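Long-time lurker, finally posting.

We've been working with Methyltransferase family protein (Pleionea mediterranea) and I want a structural starting point before designing mutants. I don't trust myself to interpret raw outputs, so I'm hoping someone here can both generate the structure tokens and explain anything notable. Sequence follows.
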Amino acid sequence: MSGSWDEYATGWDSNEAVIAYADNAYHALKNIVELEGRRIFDFGCGTGLLTERLANRASSVVGLDPSQKMISVLENKCLKNVATIASELNQDLINDNSLLSPKFDLVVASSALAFVPDYVKALMLLKQLLNKGGCLVQWDWLKDEGDEGYGFTEQQIKSALTEAGFAECSTSVPFSLQSDGSALNVLMGVARNV
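Top reply, 14 upvotes:
Generated this for you. Predicted structure of Methyltransferase family protein:
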């Protein structure tokens, strides 16, 4: 997967739709969780459009993305409280990478979890990174039951979060983006590690 994302790295930060997605996700996040002074893990951070916004309020942010080129764009921004990891998330990385300890207050995944090979397994790995009481927030395209393509239904997110051991699982549609004259709804999933 990372090879295909590498191709997008150079122009990613100038893509108006990508910028709008990051802005809207950040504003939706500010309305539901406290960001000030938090330790945050940005899963699938890409070039760091959301990471940058989080870094303004967080004590620290660790951004992970499998695309080295995306990570390089983020690193070139020289954000003082942001560390990066160019890798897939797996158990060995959690066990061995010192950037993943101590645990995090908040895990965010902006348009990333629909692209992982095993959604529930990814959620279980992310849950390991959270403090007790910590929050996971994801944004992905809203799909109707039976639709093809990347994204989730509300039920898919709620079921997967519950199966992964999260509590207080909820979904909402905090924003939509226009594409070719139609609105594409973005689904937000929120859950707590108990």
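Before you design anything, note these points.
DSSP finds seven helices and seven strands in the chain.
The beta strands are 39-43, 60-65, 82-86, 104-110, 130-141, 167-179, 182-192.
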